[in-house]
Automatic annotation (TrEMBL), chains A, B:
Its cofactor is FAD. Residues 454-563 form the Acetyl-CoA dehydrogenase-like C-terminal domain. Residues 162-267 form the Acyl-CoA oxidase/dehydrogenase middle domain. GO terms for molecular function: flavin adenine dinucleotide binding; oxidoreductase activity, acting on the CH-CH group of donors. It holds the Pfam family Acyl-CoA_dh_1. This is Acyl-CoA dehydrogenase. Belongs to the acyl-CoA dehydrogenase family. It comes from Actinoplanes awajinensis subsp. mycoplanecinus. It comes from the Bacteria. The keyword Endoplasmic reticulum does not apply.
Length: 569, 569
């Protein structure tokens, strides 16, 4: 029986038949690895995800963490799952061997981690945050900080958070007011309130290492005045509580198993990461990783929703073909009804397209070069936002395919939807990603990032039977981008930025489908036929959506700028 | 301070300035009414909705009905609210005075009831179901049945349900297996299991009157063998329990305050409604009303979501305009950000457009004629499905506009989304509505319904400055419809029926916006400017979505028919 968590067959296709990650083992960094070790980590990931993560996914949802004023209670399955995960070594999957890492390629690590995100997104979040925290410190911390903070994280003893937002400063980090005061001994004290801190407090680990954005006295206004601090929950030497207290837990629509905290820092002992005033720059290192992680999480939730819907549609018998005349004929499986097929095929195109994109992005990380770095930088807002919207739609379709049953909590798909809803919000909303893409990524370096992206897309499209509309879309996107920025007026150029993100996102996924169709070639078998089918679907049913979006952008429409707020009601 | 439940200003505009419902008082049926009585019912609806319904909306969600094996426990606020509602007389708002009704026009009743649906959709559902039940019996029951069942409903003593679905027969009523056996005295006994019965059991009323679809022994297969029965929970004379037991409650993603039951009928005393074999025909009377009610409920939930989002966007300060350079400048209200405005304006266009449509439909009911009946029949699948999709999107936008806060249960918008998610499922899924529209409504009578609809749309568009693209869309929809049916092959004609519903729906709402812009004229003031703005938005940003949909339909694409299920994965 096939897994309803994720498809190993698809991962194998993407990793080995398409991206050919085996060739990475020719690189010194991955020389110890082979197809066998990659497979072993994929196997163990599926095994742990299905055995230790998936079974408590609903229990997580029904039994949120609670706070009695003293400690946070979490169902015991979470600690157990995280312990097994840490023991597998996967937390340091991509890290250097000298720090206890496995030096796995990012593409393989990403594929492994998707199993956990699909099986239990709330429990996997603790691991994802800890990994991101450790990566940041490996890149910007001192050897001493790495030893004291990162190594215990990789051993599963400590967990990590990122503390950016404040109640009045979510998307707008320039308004962060938490302040840090330098002490005579070179250490710091941090005071302020932080909001939306996932994994912000719990008893799952001996210690929680908070990475906190704060403003040193006298620092300039805006993001340039932000510095980054390590603030442990407990003193590493004495185990005594630091000045970090849990002011309360947030209660969400989904993602309920992950504690999400309001934290009060009061004169908390802290140490600086790197240099003062560069906090946001360091944090972006973690945020870019987190954004790809969010996109992956959205793919994972959409993928498992799709697999559940597909299994249900094959099993559930109801209705007859529209042309059938005999009401006494037996009902058919609902997968035979065109509208159910439409939702399934659309979902397949979203989740497999999204999966290809996140693995493609991870594979760029494995082959660093100025060109690949630029391409990844350009793609990041799409990797984050596109799956958050469209793989969420796969979960929405999964509810609809299940009908009334899908709307009940007896079936898992409504939870997938609720969990996935967060992905369009955290780590930068879709609207923020749109501004990042059109306002920064496609303009910087004289438009080099967009030119490179379109070159890559065109190279794929030129050799594809399905390529003509994709080539046309590339030309249109280039022309639209140039036209938007011709006057150099950011307010006007960016007024319909979301339409731009939507159009660019669909073009990128069309590219991912041409790539997959190319890798499938004319190979025999249902799996490859499915890849060709979904590629055809995406190019013929989905890509045309971008026409009206580009028309709107080309028209120079500024309705959203020109209106008066009072007209809204 | 403006209400965040619904906009009385908008209702007044639509009812009085656009539909001119005052002129209905020239009809004999409404002769006792006047603007003053209409206003009085609108006033009292808002008052009761805000005072007795809205305050327990979240409590309803957090405290679902429970069943201890003996009785169903519901928070006491529900019974109180329903009592106040019954006392207002609104349950029989449109019914004949001889039965205790108020003979209000449907358009006014609809506007009144929207207040309750927006304030507390779960509590209002009990009233909606009872009203639908009573309407059916008024149309098809005997005088005796009306006296015994309908009158106590209007007095608030009894409530009603509709029992169609069974575990194996949701969308496909031809598979209903509940059976009825005729007794010597002319009464019947009903045995079988029914599923998804809203209001199916509770202690809110003295008795529950179930309307049950069942098959009399020897009846033909399919829907033609279905008859309709009245099955009271308790014997009217003795008060003893009938053979109807609660087998369990369903637990849903939203709509949690409405009991939703699995009912077991075992040798339950029943009486026939009308004639044997005409059950589905009678039930459609109730279902058409219910479908308009579902569309209205979707509008109501989207509308209140929009009003909450608008209030939040004006209050919440964050970020600066993209062109601003000074990070020390104070933040602006987020309503100033174009992407927030995009979501607000889109939502406004959906919820006010949807509201116009449901009131237009109700107004057709108030002026029965062969033409109006045909138009309403044609519009019904759109009235049901369009708000279920797009006003739900307004709730989705409302979450996004609230950011992280909107995703928490501290704010009401996530509940609006969850509640609204049901509307695309119950009373016929969106996919079923699409088949109804393209397979039945636009083809019957030689296409008279579509021709009439397009005539009405064209008449409006021809006098509008915004009319050109709407006229073009009318021509395209007519041509596409003809092309789809040219070969007379239902399987091929209907394969992309959902795309057809989406296109027709957006065209109809564009029409509703031209109508509103026309009614607003060039009147001064923010309210009218808002109507013109939203009309412009809908025609320029939304209507173009139908281009790719009609292109797909015109292409004769049959991808969804041709695929093999095994290719899906």
């Amino acid at each position: 029986m096939n897994s309803t968590v994720l498809s190993r067959r698809d991962l194998d296709f993407l990793l080995y038949e398409w991206l050919d990650v085996e060739k990475l083992t020719a690189r010194e960094r991955f020389a110890e690895h082979s197809r066998e070790t990659f497979d072993a980590f994929l196997d163990v990931s599926q095994q742990i995800a299905e055995r230790d993560f998936a079974p408590h996914n609903r229990k997580n949802d029904l039994n949120e963490p609670t706070f009695d004023g003293t400690r946070v209670e979490i169902i015991p399955e979470v600690a157990h799952a995280l312990r097994v995960f840490a023991e597998s070594g996967l937390l340091g999957a991509t890290m250097d061997a000298e720090h206890g890492g496995l030096q796995l390629p990012h593409a393989v690590q990403r594929a492994c981690f998707l199993w956990f995100q699909a099986a239990n997104t709330a429990t996997s979040a603790y691991a994802m945050l800890t990994g991101g925290n450790a990566h940041l410190l490996l890149a910007h911390g001192t050897d001493e900080q790495i030893r004291r903070f990162v190594h215990p994280m990789l051993e599963g003893r400590f967990t990590g958070t990122m503390c950016l937002s404040e109640p009045q400063a979510g998307s707008s980090l320039s308004d962060v007011t938490t302040r840090a005061t330098r002490q005579a001994d070179g250490s710091y004290r941090v005071t302020g309130g932080k909001m939306w801190i996932s994994g912000g407090d719990h008893e799952l680990s001996e210690n929680i290492i908070h990475l906190v954005l704060a403003r040193v006295a006298g620092a300039p206004a805006g993001v340039k005045g932000l510095s980054l601090f390590i603030v442990p929950k407990r003193d590493l030497a004495t185990g005594e509580r630091n000045g970090v207290t849990l002011a309360g837990l947030n209660h969400k629509m989904g993602y309920r198993g992950t504690t999400n905290a309001v934290l009060a820092f009061e004169d908390a002992a802290a140490e600086l990461v790197g240099e003062e005033g560069r906090g946001l720059q360091y944090m972006f290192h973690m945020m870019n990783e987190a954004r790809i992680g969010v996109g992956s999480g959205a793919v994972a939730l959409g993928y498992t929703g799709y697999l559940h819907a597909l299994a249900y549609a094959r099993e559930r018998q109801q209705g007859r073909p529209v042309a059938a005349k005999d009401p006494a004929a037996p009902p058919v499986p609902i997968v035979d009804h065109p509208d159910v097929r439409r939702m399934l095929l659309a979902s397949k195109s979203y989740v497999e397209g999204g999966l290809a994109l996140v693995l493609y992005a991870a594979n760029l990380l494995d082959q660093p070069s100025p060109e690949n770095d630029l391409l990844l930088d350009t793609l990041t807002p799409i990797v984050k936002a596109w799956p958050s919207q469209w793989c969420r739609l796969a979960d929405d379709h999964a509810i609809q395919i299940h009908g009334g049953y899908g709307y009940t909590r007896e079936y898992p798909v409504e939870q997938f939807y609720r969990d996935n809803r967060l992905n369009s919000i955290h780590e930068g909303t879709d609207g923020i990603q749109a501004l990042d893409l059109l306002g920064r990524k496609v303009t910087q370096g004289g438009g080099a990032g967009l030119a490179l992206l379109l070159d890559r897309i065109r190279a794929t499209a030129q050799k594809s039977e399905l390529g003509a509309p994709v080539l046309a879309a590339c030309d249109r996107l280039a022309a639209t981008t140039a036209k938007l920025w011709a006057a150099g007026d950011p307010a006007k150029a960016l007024v319909n930025a979301t339409a731009y993100l939507d159009a660019a996102g669909h073009l990128v996924i069309a590219w991912m489908w041409l790539e997959q169709a190319d890798a499938a070639g004319d190979s025999a078998g249902d799996f490859y036929a499915g890849k060709r089918l979904a590629a055809t679907y995406f190019v013929t049913h989905e890509l045309p959506r971008i026409g009206p979006l580009l028309d709107l952008l080309d028209s120079g429409d500024t309705l959203l700028l020109d209106l008066e707020d009072a007209w809204l009601g």
